[in-house]
Design brief:
Layout: E1 4-11, H1 14-29, E2 33-37, H2 42-48, H3 54-61, E3 65-70, H4 76-82, H5 97-104, E4 109-115, E5 129-135, E6 145-146, H6 151-160, E7 177-178, H7 184-201, E8 205-210, H8 218-230, E9 237-242, H9 243-252, E10 259-262, H10 264-277, E11 285-289, E12 294-298, H11 315-327, H12 331-347, H13 361-370
Parallel strand pairs: 1-2, 1-3, 3-12, 5-10, 8-9, 8-10
Antiparallel strand pairs: 4-5, 4-11, 6-7, 11-12
Helix pairs in contact: 1-13, 7-8, 9-10, 11-12, 12-13
The structure holds 3-isopropylmalic acid and magnesium ion (MG).
Length: 372
């Protein structure tokens, strides 16, 4: 049996284009792996009413990790309209399969490195090397939402919190609630992962990014865990920054920061901001990592209008593939792949349209492969 069982999930749109790019480099790296195709995406929502069919979940359970392309999500009304007629009006609810994977497999660490590779014309500035650790399963993504807000829930909140009075006169359908749930356990886990990464890779600081001056309880709990865990890492300095100020600092002096750790929603925001500083979505790679399973995905969307045109920058996918190799303990292959990526970027000969060139997705992938 091969050493690794890897689920292969192109998903939708350009997901297929960029996964082909990953295939080209993985083939050359000669990883001892079997790749299992797994159904996921919009097509399965339309045909089966579930973008993440149970057979995919079962397959993933037998794999070491998964590589994922991209997925299409649409607003509520369109989801219903695109279902096959026999599934319409059955009360089926679309929910993002990637968010479900993160939660069902408890992939609580979202790792998003954003490095300005020298010579990338899209770098905001040279010398940026940011790594976002985003808690991946809770916070505003808990999925615990209410609309309409039933009378009993309003009454309960009213009884238990004085601030609720301000909202009490609204009719149930005129307000909506999403719970921000933060647990000590998940906070500790992501913070520890951030410190361990900083230690392993020699980053002098970890910045915890929250908003404890306003979100006293949730951000408060998160920041307290960071302070406690920081004690165990005397060589690494803990910086504390509010999310709003962090956005400003990242635009002003991004090179002053390295590892950042935060909760789910703030992590979603600063990871897009950080990605844009180093070339945008074409360079934004991520790992969703749990205790015994992980899903690796570029953070761009499925860009349906570019599907099959091979225009998409495959770098995000190739850097994602590098993260997967790191996760599997294939440090040599990971390092080889990253240095090939770097060389292709710095030589400037192969560039997709977003970088001002006219190379195709696969030209770039082959260029990287040829350096392996
Ligand atoms: C991301 C994306 C997802 C998220 C969406 C597609 C659900 O923005 O991975 O950052 O919000 O986490
Ligand atoms: Mg996002």
């Amino acid at each position: 049996m091969a050493k690794y069982q890897i689920a292969w999930m192109p998903g939708d749109g350009i997901g297929n284009d960029v996964m082909e790019a990953a295939e080209i480099v993985l083939e050359r790296l000669d990883l001892d792996a079997v790749y299992h195709h797994a159904d996921i995406g919009w097509e399965f929502w339309c045909k089966e009413g579930d973008p993440l069919p149970q057979r995919t979940v079962d397959l993933l359970k037998s794999c070491d990790c998964a590589l994922f392309g991209a997925i299409t999500s649409k607003p509520k009304e369109e989801c219903e309209k695109e279902l096959v007629p026999e599934l319409q009006n059955k009360g089926l609810q679309y929910s993002s399969p990637i968010v479900r994977l993160r939660q069902e497999f408890n992939l609580s660490i979202n790792l998003r490195p954003c490095k300005a590779y020298p010579g990338n014309p899209l770098n905001y500035r040279e010398g940026i090397d940011l790594v976002v650790f985003r808690e991946n399963t809770e916070d505003l993504y808990s999925g615990v939402e209410f609309h309409p807000v039933e009378k009993e829930i309003m009454a309960f909140l009213n009884d238990h919190h004085p601030r609720m009075k301000r909202f009490a006169h609204h009719a149930p359908q005129d307000l909506a609630i999403t719970l921000r749930i933060i647990t000590r356990a998940a906070s500790q886990k992501i913070i520890r992962a951030a410190f361990e990464y900083a230690k392993k890779h020699g980053y002098p600081t970890v910045t915890v990014v929250e908003k404890p001056n306003v979100l006293r309880e949730t951000s408060g709990l998160f920041v307290r865990q960071a302070r406690a865990i920081a004690q165990e890492y005397p060589d690494i300095e803990l910086w504390e920054t509010n999310i709003d100020a962090m956005c400003m600092w990242l635009v002003k002096n991004p090179e002053n920061y390295g590892v950042m750790v935060t909760s789910n929603m703030f992590g979603d925001i600063i990871s897009d901001l950080s990605a844009q500083l180093v070339g945008g979505l074409g360079f934004s790679a991520s790992g969703n990592i749990g205790d015994d399973f992980a899903v690796f995905e570029p953070t761009h969307g499925s860009a349906p209008k570019y599907a099959g045109l091979y225009k998409t920058n495959p770098m995000a996918m190739l850097i994602t593939t590098k993260l997967m190799l790191d996760y599997l303990g294939e440090a040599d292959r990971a390092q080889q792949l990253e240095s090939a990526i770097k060389r292709v970027i710095s030589s400037g000969k192969l560039r997709t349209y977003d970088m001002g060139g006219s190379s195709t997705t696969l030209d770039v992938a082959r260029g990287v492969r040829d350096l392996l």
